[in-house]
Each structure stands twice: as structure tokens, then as C-alpha cells.
Amino acid sequence: MSRLLFSNIDILDERFDHYAGCYVGVKAGRIAYIGKTAPQEDFGEVYDGTGKLLMPGFYNAHSHAAMTLMRGYAENMALDDWLHKQIFPFEAKLDSEAIYNGTMLAAAEMVRFGIVSATDMYFDGEAVSRAVLDSGIKMNFGHSVTCFDHRGARDLPVYQETMDVLRRFHNAEDGRLRLDLAIHAEYTSTPQVVEDMAALAKETGLHLHLHLSETQAEHEACKARRGGRTPARYFCDAGVFDVPATAAHCVWLEGEDFDILKEKGVTVACNPVSNLKLASGFCNVPKLLDLGVNVALGTDSVASNNSLNMLEEIKLFATLFKASTGDPTAVTPKQALYAATRAGALSQGRTDCGLVKEGFRADLIVLDLRHRPYLRPCHDLRNNVVFSAQGTDVCLTMADGRVLYRDGEYFTLDLERVAANAEVSVAKILRQL
Fold first, then answer.
1. 102 in Cβ contact with 67 (< 8 Å)
2. For the whole prediction, is pTM greater than 0.85?
3. pLDDT of res. 77
4. Neighbours of 56 (CB within 10 A)
5. Among 172, 180, 173, 69, which Cα is nearest to 118's?
6. What torsion do the CA atoms of 258, 261, 265, 268 make, to the nearest 10 degrees?
7. How far is CA 71 from CA 160, 194, 314, in A?
């Protein structure tokens, strides 16, 4: 962990208000000082923040990190064809080495774009856990559970794998890596498995992560199968929302769905780029925000996005719903920044994260505002960050007080080796297809 004093730096404080010329001291992984004058305490290295902005790091509320290996592999397809004709056959060839390599590549991209933590759903938790611990990022990881037969969740091979990874890695390195449970979706599971997973979450105290109403076809097919119940009602009846849960997408919510999510305290992970690219539609974020639902922001996978550039996601999130509602006030820059930071931290159960606040964990990023013609003039810094800033403006990424990326240098991974290993894994898989 770094001891570091940011000096003469602009900040977005815990209310996402802008203050210029501040001092922020970091020690023991936490923010120990914020003020307009230099602290008396010696924080070691002094970082000159002139012309720069310090703000909370981004929390990616829905990802499939290892799918970096499929960037650009399946394009211009509807979700059903995209999955069954391209993605699932590719994933069937993945081994532990490939998943590790793909996750490491994702970690490099995340920290380059200011993402300090991700809520991830995939396979091979041992490989993903090793990548998280090696790369320095934070993560809530859940094994994606699918089942199409009559077995219960405890009879599935993934159950034993989940229990093994839970014992070995849960809360590793002071909680930097946490394990969740994950149900892929209503259409890839059975009522027995869903009920078992809900019971297991209650038993273990773990969070749940799932896909919900991503496409109209998925949503309507659920209603046809489940006696008119929507996916939200179906999962609620099964007890899934009786524990802290993150529901990804939520594009086709209707009727009581909104109230269910509000009453149960479910976080909605909105993924605007992926949803638009796959022609799935867009979530009714303004209604969710009006109800007080915790709406966080995710990238989804690189296979459907095709990047982990959170500032790109933020701009679309703050723009799309103005057009969809005809209301230019629908999502404010402050709401967009909150969704990308604090809301994601809360969805992961990291209550002392996601804000520039004394005592909070130092999950911080710095944006270089100098020599950027697209950031001039500056009438309101939040507006410039949300609507004008680029992912490459991130010049420092720190997680739990540890600098992971700074001015083109990675401190926990060898980018050339990571990229080369990912390419080797892709070539190996393509030879098998």
C-alpha cells in the first residue's frame, strides 16, 4: 500500500461537488486526510496535482472479464444467435489458462480506464481468483450456474467448485476479492436450482448476481413458462431477492417489477453500450432512479461492448435516457458519476468505498485535464468529465491505496506479456473450432 499525498489537486468530494486546490493524504489503504491546506502529517511521496482531478475509481457492476478473448469475434448478430452460434462454442474450448489470461487482459484494460473493481460472473473461479490477486484489482466474483435437468444446485459440479473457491479465496487480501453466488438467468436454470441458490445465499451470507429481462424474447418466454410471472416476480418468489442481489440489464421491466426491485433493495446494473449494440433495448433508468433503486453501471463483456472504457459508458448513460424520455433532465451528470462509483461499491457490499471521503478505502483515480482542447473551457467540471473526458485521460489508478497504473506504467503486471498470453490462448481455441 502506498503512502501518498496528492497536493494542489482538484477533487470531486463525497457529494460529487468540485473543489480546486486540495490536499488528499493516503496511508494504510485509506484516505486519511482531505483539506484545503497541507497536512502536518508526513505522507511520504508528494504527487503534484496541478491541472489534474482526483475522484473515486469506477466500479464495474456487471462484467465477464475473461471474455476479452472474444473481443470482435461475434458481431452484428441478435443475442440468441450471438450466444448459441458464436459465444457458447468458443467458451466450450476455454481452459483454466485461457480464463486466467483473459482475466489478466481485462484487469490491464480496467485499471487503464480507471476501473478499480468489478462484479464478475463467469467460470473457473480458481483461475479468475488468481488473476485478481496477481493484478491488484478488486472483484466480487460468482460462478455462473446453469442447469437444464432435474438436479438440484448441490448436485451440480459447479457447486463443489464454488465451495472450494469460497474456502480458499473469499475475502482474500483484506476483502479485495469477494465471492458471490451467480445464477446465469431464468432461461438457463430451473426452479429447483434457483430456489437452492437462494437458500445457499441465505446460508452463507453471500450476494447474488444474475441476468434479468435482458431481451424482450427472454422476458416474454418467462411469462409464458411461469404462469404469467415476469423474471423479476419469478426470482422474487423463489427467494433470490431476500439477499443482497445485483440484477444485470433489466431492459424489459414492466408493471410491478419496478416496485419489487425497490422493495427488495436490488441493485440494477445498467449496461447501455452492450444493450444497444446487441439491439436488446434500454433500461428505464429514470423510473428506477425516481423510485430510489440503486442503479449502478456496468460494461458487460468485451465480446458485446467491445471495451472496458467506463467513461464511454458514463457518457451514454447520461445521454441515452434524455432521448428515450424526451426529458433533457432525465439523468444528471452527478447521477451518472454516482452510478459509476458509489452505487457499484454499494452493490458489492463495500460500504466504505466509492467516495472521496476521509476514512474510506483509497479507491481513487486521477484524470489529467491539461492540454486537452476537448476539456476547454470548463464551466462545470462534472459536465466536462461526463460528456467530454476520454478514458485515456486517466493517468493514475489506485485500489485500496495501491497504485496499479500511473502515466503509462503498470505496477502489478507486464502488459506485453499479458497481451501475448491472451493471443496465444485465442489462437489455441480457434484451432479447435
1. yes
2. yes
3. 85
4. 29
5. 180
6. -90
7. 30, 31, 21
